[in-house]
TrEMBL record:
Record's protein name: IPT/TIG domain-containing protein
Keywords, ordered alphabetically: Glycoprotein
Pfam families: TIG
Region (Disordered): 71-94
InterPro entries noted in UniProt: Dictyostelium_Tiger, Ig-like_fold, Ig_E-set, IPT_dom
Organism taxonomic ancestry: Eukaryota, Viridiplantae, Chlorophyta, core chlorophytes, Chlorodendrophyceae
Record-annotated IPT/TIG domain positions: 84-177, 180-260, 270-362
UniProt biased composition (Polar residues): 80-94
Species in which this protein is naturally found: Tetraselmis chuii
Superkingdom as given in the UniProt entry: Eukaryota
Length: 478
């Protein structure tokens, strides 16, 4: 409380006071009336000084009567107590949950009228700062206490609001949060995508506070569309890339995570989801998956592909796995991030494993036993009817029979009758990438029996149009 000056017209001569019947101030929030006592005119007709008791807030109504004549109502909402002011904050740097003491003036007498906020760059009429977890009066009029809320930044201000009146930001109200800390970052897909950054001191969550985020850097690139989803986690959209050991740096209203995120960001490992079987003569190997990186152009960004069978050998009574790699060359990413094509050497069978390495990151076990060579295909059989004179040699024309080097891993059946393996012969037909496989027809009976060629454990599907063989009709000789 104290002396206040009320300006107006027709207030009386200088130094006079007895002609003033009363001056009242009415609180618009409560309707309480407070008399402004000991009035005296300080400027002829224009100004009156009087003394008012303690109070808070603004928008009070002024009413007065002079020699029985009341005012015209023009004083509605025109008087207020002085706004609060901050003279010191201690400590000036703290983390959420810390208690800080704010000294100043005009804080009033009652905690219920006090609200303390941390305000700074990025705040607007829609988001007026973050209110302290606890705001309370500790010394009437002169000291309040704030339990620091979740927020972030440096060179911010502690703003005290009392009954709708707010303190101004000054050097004395300066306050900073401790720097944010990054503890981990989730990998991004190589085509770019959302990552989550975990740590401490990221501030309040939600769209309202997105302006608090100055930048998120991943290596030399910016991570865009950043959003705090909780005080210890934030998301952003990483750009396309490959590799690992990138530095992550978060800056929130001037406060940087510094070196706490160095080396913590990487792109996801390649992931093999499927492999198109290559022909047994060798040729194109197509690997489908994720996180293979950008399309290969002019020999740049070439992935490393290794394919091998796990073969077991017994040595001195111990079973050992022997790794013998296939020859894989000319690899490149043919569809960005999702398809790799290579040239692979000849082979047969299934359960080969593959590993894709992109910028030092491997596909781990996603390619275990993922590669098989193409299954045999029987195009035609000649002759299709058993000879009535002597043994019949069957000629099977088709694809994916392997090469003559694999003849000991080929088995041929007429339905369930196996061809004598010692009679099998294989040679290529050029230039059609076909092979002819011959063997002596086994003893058997029946007509239109499918021919099955087993190569390295893989077998063709029955060709009931051209891939069959019939035995001659039974005959009784005695």
């Amino acid at each position: 409380g104290g002396m206040t000056t009320i300006a107006g017209n027709n207030l009386g001569p200088l130094g006079s006071s007895s002609h003033i019947d009363y001056i009242n101030l009415t609180d618009p929030r409560t309707g309480a009336v407070q008399a402004c006592v000991d009035p005296v005119v300080t400027v002829d007709d224009l100004a009156v000084n009087c003394t008012v008791g303690p109070g808070i807030g603004g928008g009070w109504d002024i009413s007065m009567s002079i020699m029985g004549q009341e005012d015209d109502g023009s004083g509605a909402g025109k008087w207020q107590y002085q706004s609060p002011s901050v003279t010191s904050v201690s400590p000036r740097t703290a983390s959420p949950g810390t208690t800080i003491f704010v000294e100043g003036e005009n804080f009033g007498l009652d905690t219920k009228n006090i609200s303390i906020s941390v305000v700074g760059p990025g705040d607007s009429e829609a988001c007026l700062g973050v209110v302290c977890r606890i705001s309370r009066l500790s010394v009437p009029h002169r000291q309040v206490v704030c339990v620091v809320p979740d927020s972030a930044g440096e060179n911010l201000d502690i703003i005290v609001e009392v009954a709708g009146l707010r303190s101004n930001a000054t050097d004395a109200s300066d306050f900073s949060y401790q720097n944010p800390i990054i503890t981990s970052v989730t990998p991004a897909p190589t085509q770019g995508g959302v990552v989550t950054i975990f740590g401490q001191g990221f501030g309040p969550d939600g769209e309202c506070y997105k302006p608090y985020i100055d930048s998120i850097e991943l290596g030399d690139d910016l991570c865009t569309d950043a959003l705090v989803i909780r005080p210890n986690a934030m998301t952003c959209v990483a750009p396309p890339g490959v590799g690992d050991n990138y530095d992550a740096v978060v800056t929130l209203r001037g406060s940087s995570s510094r070196n706490t995120g160095f080396g913590l960001f990487r792109y996801a490992n390649p992931n093999i989801t499927g492999v198109v079987p290559p022909p047994t003569v060798g040729g194109e190997l197509t690997i489908n998956g994720e996180n293979f990186g950008p399309e290969t152009v002019d020999g740049e960004d070439v992935p490393l592909v290794v394919v091998w069978p796990d073969q077991e050998e017994v040595s001195f009574g111990q079973v050992q796995v022997v790794r013998s790699e296939k020859v894989v060359t000319e690899c490149g990413v043919s569809v960005a991030h999702s398809v790799i094509t290579c040239t692979i050497s000849e082979g047969i069978g299934a359960n080969y494993s593959a590993n894709v390495t992109v910028a030092g990151l491997g596909s781990r076990d996603t390619g275990l036993r993922a590669v098989s060579y193409a299954i045999p295909v029987v195009e035609s059989v000649s002759p299709q009817i058993q000879s009535e004179v002597g043994p019949t040699t069957i000629t099977i024309t088709g694809r994916n029979f392997g090469s003559p080097a694999y003849i000991d891993q080929i088995r041929v059946f007429v339905d369930t009758y196996e061809v004598d393996r010692t009679t099998l012969r294989l040679w290529p037909l050029q230039p059609f990438n076909l092979y002819e496989l011959t063997g002596r027809a086994p003893p058997g009976a029946g007509i239109n029996l499918p021919i099955y060629v087993h190569v390295g454990g893989l077998v063709n599907e029955a060709n009931h149009v051209n891939g069959w063989f019939s035995y001659t009709s039974p005959a009784i000789v005695s």
